[in-house]
C-alpha cells in the first residue's frame, strides 16, 4: 500500500484533505491527486486511481455523493484519454426513453446526461445520443432518429439505456370469453419509445384497448411474428405539452431477444458494458434472489457485462453517471462499481408503506471488463 495512504488517513474532513493536497501530490509513488469538494482522487499509476469519500463535518461520515439532482458535479481536472488497446476510439451510445417526457427529461439532461456526455467527449470518446430508441435500436440496422445515421449497436463499448421496466406475470385477454386470465408466463421487460397511442390521464386504456393496440401495431410493423411472450405494451403517465397523458410503449422481454434477435450474426464487443436503468430487469421470483435471464440474452451474444436493478429504483441515473465518471478516471468496471455509494447500490424505498431495497448488480459478477 502506498505510503501516501498514511497521510490520507490523518484527514478527517474534506477541508483537511484540501490543506494537505500538495503534500499528497508530491508523495512518493503518486502521479497526481485532486479533490472535487466531496472526494479525494489519487492516481498511483495510469490505470490505478483511488477515491476517498469525506464529509465537511468530522462527526459525520459520508459514504459518497448525495443522491440529489442538485449535487455538486465532479468536474475532474484531469481525465485519461480514452483509447482502446487496439488504438481505436471508444464508442458510447446513450439512449433516453424519457426524451419527450417533460416531467423527466429536464432534470435528467441537466443533472446527468449533459455533464456525462461533455466529460466523455473531453476524453476523445465518441458519444451518440439517441433521444427515442425504437425496437430497431437492438438490431444491426437501427438508426438515430434525429440524424438518420446508421447505428450498429454491436460496435459500441458502452450502452447506457434510460428507460422504464417491470417484471410481470403476463395477462392474456381472451376474446371469446372477454376475460383477462393469468398466463403463468413471467418475464422481465424494458420499454422503448415507439409512441403508439396517447390519451388523457383519466382515460387509461382497458385490456381490450391494450390488445387492440398490440394487434394493430404488429400487423403494421415488420414484427408480425411477435407474440405476447415476446413483447407487450406499457402505459406510462408522461407530461406532454404541459398535460399529463398516458402513452403506450412497447415493452421488450427476454424472450424477444431469445427468439427474435437470435437470427442475427453480429456479436457485442467482449469488453462492452450495458447499463440498463429500467426497474426490475434483474428481479427474481423470490425476494433477495435476482434473476439474470434478461442479462443472459445479452451476454450470450458476447456482451462483456450487464448492469441493472432487481427492483424499482430512483437513483439509477446517478449510479450510471458516477460509474462512468469513475471509469474515466482509470478504474476498471468492477472497481468503479465498488466505489459507488451504498445508496446507489442498495437503495431503500417503499411501496404501499412496505419498505424494500433496490439492489444494483453486475452480471457476470466476476466481470473482467476494464
Can you tell me about this structure?
The structure is a single chain. By secondary structure, the chain is α/β, with parallel strands linked by helices. The chain has ten helices and 15 strands. The strands form three sheets. The protein has a seven-stranded mixed sheet, sandwiched between helices. A hairpin with a 2-residue loop joins β10 (about 230-240) and β11 (about 245-255). It starts with a helix and ends in a 7-residue tail after the last strand.
Report the β-strand fraction as a percent range. Answer: 25-35%
Global Rg: 22 Å
What is the first-to-last residue Cα distance? 22 Å
Question: Could you give the order of the helices and strands?
Answer: HHHEEEEHEEEEEHEEHEHEHHHEE
Q: Based on DSSP secondary structure assignment, what is the total number of beta strands?
A: 15
Largest sheet: 7 strands, mixed
What's the structural blueprint in terms of helices and strands?
Blueprint (H helix, E strand, L loop, with lengths): L3 H6 L4 H6 L1 H5 L6 E4 L3 E7 L2 E6 L37 E6 L8 H17 L4 E5 L27 E5 L2 E10 L4 E13 L6 E3 L6 H14 L10 E10 L2 E11 H6 L13 E4 L16 H7 L5 E5 L6 H13 L4 H6 L3 H4 E6 L2 E10 L7
Helix pairs in contact: 4-8
